[in-house]
Design brief:
The protein is an alpha/beta fold. It folds into two domains: 124 residues, no CATH class; 195 residues, Rossmann fold (3-Layer(aba) Sandwich), CATH 3.40.50. It has 14 helices and seven strands. Helix 12 crosses helix 13.
């Protein structure tokens, strides 16, 4: 049985990943095609467009034959054919009359043909041909509600259903901790209300950057991102600790995941779990109570489900999977 081109990707990773030599060969191919097209367009202007079309079709045909010989779907090399087409069009436009717009557009297409990622294109083809959608899912709630544990299990669940999935812990900053840490780590019990008034602003910039890096293109790729906490969690924590975060509330609450779940536990249960974690930062019950109330407000205002996380782990996990299954069905696998 001939393998489908999506079988070339296992959960978004190549089973036979391109080696450095293969990647270099594709870049050199794009350069050669662009240069030849430039020469043809300048030497034989009337034949230039035909050359562009013939080059793209010839490489597409080569890709079909190459994929068939490797027992992959005939569309597997379509991303490379697309890069060759970009290089040919780029070379043609670079040689166009110098009115700035066309040559500059040609240079942009040429650069794209060199750096465009083949695997991202294949994931986009998966999304279009298999009806697989991507998106983001956030798990929210106070400490000890099971966010991290359920996030890990959900990542495995998505992978088992044919989705390329990544887990992003939003309580780990890109740069804020390095900029604001002083004198080592904080010991449990040291957290007090109020603090550096500039920290919420730095955290906002950090969180927005992390959100952009991890969510860019997920819909096109059919990729799922699971957020263990979210930007809103940073806002809720700072607000409960008395930081001057209110002026930034609109910016903190502006980004949205596609889906969010609030895992709800009583404050007393949260504190019991935290006490059982050796070096976990401990917050006062008043802080956790304010956080809980804020999460419930977010759920009510935005229509997110509140899930009782005092039940057994497996029951809660089954409910999460059941709700997600409606939005992310098992990937269909079409065979010839």
């Amino acid at each position: 049985m001939m393998e489908r081109w999506q079988d070339y990707l296992i959960d978004g990773g190549a089973r036979r990943p391109n080696t450095g030599i293969e990647k270099l060969k594709m870049k050199l191919t794009a350069v050669v095609v662009a240069v030849l097209t430039l020469v043809v367009s300048m030497a034989f202007p009337t034949f230039a467009l035909s050359w562009v079309l013939l080059t793209a079709l010839a490489y597409a045909a080569y890709g079909v034959i190459r994929s068939a010989s490797r027992k992959l779907d005939y569309l597997n090399d379509l991303p490379n054919a697309f890069r060759v087409a970009l290089a040919a069009v780029g070379g043609y436009l670079i040689g166009a009359p110098l009115n700035f717009t066309l040559p500059s557009s040609g240079i942009l297409l040429f650069v794209l043909s060199i750096y465009l990622n083949d695997e991202y294109q294949r994931r986009a083809l998966l999304t279009m041909t298999e009806g697989r959608r991507g998106g983001s899912v956030a798990l929210l709630g106070i400490d000890g509600s099971g966010k991290s544990t359920h996030a890990v299990r959900l990542e495995k669940w998505f992978l088992s259903r044919g989705y390329y999935c990544t887990l992003v812990p939003f309580h780990k900053y890109l740069f804020v901790e390095r900029l604001t840490r002083k004198g080592g780590e904080r010991a449990p019990g040291e957290v007090q209300r109020g603090g550096n008034p500039f920290r919420p602003l730095l955290s906002l910039a950090d969180n927005i950057l992390l959100n952009l890096i991890t969510s860019l293109g997920i819909g096109l790729e059919g990729r799922v991102v699971i957020y263990d906490r979210y930007i809103w969690s940073t806002y809720v924590k700072y607000r409960s600790l008395g930081y001057p975060v209110e002026p930034l509330s609109a910016l903190y609450m502006l980004p949205r995941p596609n889906l969010a779940f609030i895992l709800d536990v009583p404050v007393t249960r949260s504190m019991e779990i935290i006490r059982g974690r050796g070096n976990h930062i401990r917050y006062a019950s008043e802080v956790l109570k304010e956080e809980k109330e804020e999460y419930l407000k977010i759920a009510a205002s935005r229509g997110y489900p509140v899930i009782d996380s005092t039940r057994s782990f497996e029951i809660v996990q089954e409910e999460l999977e059941r709700r997600l299954e409606r939005v992310f069905p098992t990937r269909r696998s079409r065979r010839r």
